[in-house]
Design a protein that fits this description.
There is one protein chain. With 226 residues, the protein is α+β, with helices and mostly antiparallel strands. The protein contains seven helices and seven strands; from the N terminus they run αββββββααααααβ. It has one domain. The chain has a four-stranded antiparallel beta sheet with strand order 6-3-2-7, sandwiched between helices. A three-stranded antiparallel beta sheet has the order 1-4-5, with helices on one face. A hairpin with an 8-residue loop joins strand 2 and strand 3. Helix 2 packs antiparallel against helix 3 and helix 3 runs antiparallel to helix 4. It comes from Seohaeicola nanhaiensis. This is DUF1353 domain-containing protein. Keywords: Signal.
Length: 226
């Protein structure tokens, strides 16, 4: 009974992976810098809470690509909301499909979509403007490159299924719908309250005098450095 259920779930994930990105052909790039993941609230009931990606102020996470002819070769994500990888709960039963298993790769991919939304809405600023020439296909190629880089660097274990399925899913129609959506930029940006909470958490971490936040203070739940 349980085995049949797991097989059905995995089959669903494989069917969703209908994009054209070839994970095996993806070049290995390089990660530099560090990031924090902070919890800022309970979220909307669909997951474990609401999280914020926070780049290091001195060594921000940077993904350097090694693909000839790439529209963008250096990606530096800025602060944003994140749920890690948007993996359905049922899919998380399988090895390699944790929403945080390939966290740095997911942060890079999420950031590209945030930037695309703001470019679409004519609200892009700073690093967001640098991906203007990037195509949807290239956005999917990047997550394949980023995951492959994590494996090559020994940050995560080798997996023969998950990276290929994930690369296919982010190149598929559901992901494309998110790529072309309009009116999403404003909602992607942190609220004033959450930004204050993040600043307070960073101040505590640095041993500085805390700011007074309007809500509960953000908590650092993960740190990754390269």
């Amino acid at each position: 009974m349980f085995i049949c259920r797991y097989v059905a779930i995995l089959a669903g994930l494989l069917l969703a992976a209908c994009g054209t990105v070839d994970f095996d052909e993806a070049p290995v790039g390089r990660f530099e810098g560090a990031l924090l993941v902070m919890w800022v609230g309970e979220g909307d009931g669909k997951g474990a809470g609401k999280f914020v990606y926070v780049p290091s102020r001195t060594r921000p996470l940077t993904f350097i690509r090694n693909r000839p002819g790439a529209a963008v070769t250096r990606i530096v994500p800025e602060m944003m909301y994140t749920d890690g990888g948007s993996i359905p709960r049922a899919g998380q039963l399988f090895n390699g499909f944790s929403p945080w298993g390939y966290a740095p790769a997911y942060m890079v991919h999420d950031w590209i979509f945030v930037a695309r939304h703001c470019l679409t809405d004519n609200m892009a600023e700073g690093e967001e403007t640098k991906i203007e020439g990037m195509t949807f296909k290239e956005s999917a190629e990047i997550i394949a490159e980023a995951i492959k880089t994590l494996i090559a660097s020994g940050k995560v274990q080798r997996n023969d299924v998950a990276p290929r399925v994930i690369s296919g899913v982010v190149a598929g129609p559901f992901s494309y719908e998110r790529w072309v959506v309009k009116g999403a930029c404003k909602g992607d940006r942190l609220t004033v309250e959450h930004r204050r909470e993040v600043d307070e958490a960073l101040a505590r971490r640095s041993g500085l005098r805390s700011l007074k936040s309007a809500g509960p203070a953000a908590r650092i739940v993960a740190e990754i450095a390269f």
